[in-house]
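Why do we bother with holo predictions? Because pocket geometry can differ from the apo form. Keep that in mind while you read this record for guanosine-5'-diphosphate.
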Amino acid sequence: MASARKKAAEAMAAIDVVIEVTDARLPEASSNPMIVELRRFRNRPCLKLLNKSDLADPVATSAWMDFYNRQPGVRAVAISAKNAAEVARVPALCRQLAPHRDDGTKPLRMMIMGIPNVGKSTLMNALLKRKVAKVGDEPAVTKHQQTLDLGPGMTLTDTPGMMWPKIDYDADGYMLAASHAIGRNAVIDEEVAAFLGEILIARYLPLLAARYRLEPAMLAGFDGPALVEAVGRRRGCLVKGGGLDLEKAAQILLQDYRDGVLGRISLETPQTRAQMIAAADAA
Ligand code: GDP
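The structure, written out:
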């Protein structure tokens, strides 16, 4: 981590605007506090991209944008890095954040930062309109830092080193694992699916009822593990001997969430995050 910090601090000194990419479904859990700290230290403005907004709950995303747009030096925008028209707005938004670089003599230097798997490579390729960065649904595909010209008077540098998430709360680890931002083996699928299940029952019950054809009244009485069991029964996940294959059931629920087939879901809102922190601090 010390070397990642050093690399990030050096890189930050040589740029004008930070493009921080987070996952719109879990914007705080998928941010790295070192980015805020270094950016404030260097007084660098930030374009905060709530990416994968095509998968996130639009109401939650709008609440997060209000939340971040109140922070000094931050402009928050929801995008999908897979949508060319949305990506095309990014350079102009960065220009607005660094008007002092707009006299035609100095290039505008932008740097993309963020934890693994939030969509940095997808964004970089879309901005450059060619494939320069490897995209993968496995975390940690981006490895070598590079600076490239992005049209006249603009350069783009990718994330310096690996910026791992900082997991201060158990819920952050679960949200990241559910969204596949941390490795598959780091946490047990069944536990992660049960955590996800609790959120889905509390806030997205109609989506669950529709996807797995389960009675809403019955779902309302379930906890996370009971939901995983019900999904397993519905999908015929059985082990030899006839018992339920809960690991398989957990993987189905997680994959459905990751693929967006349950509908547009956010795992945290500014309000649920404040409640989660208050509860964890009180414990
Ligand atoms: P990086 O590790 O931050 O560079 O993330 P990648 O660019 O490799 O993306 C991780 C995964 O998320 C890949 O499977 C991408 O196709 C996917 N992805 C990236 N951006 C979006 C987006 O806006 N919407 C959706 N649905 N998927 C995205």
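Residues 237 and 243 are 9 Å apart (CA to CA).
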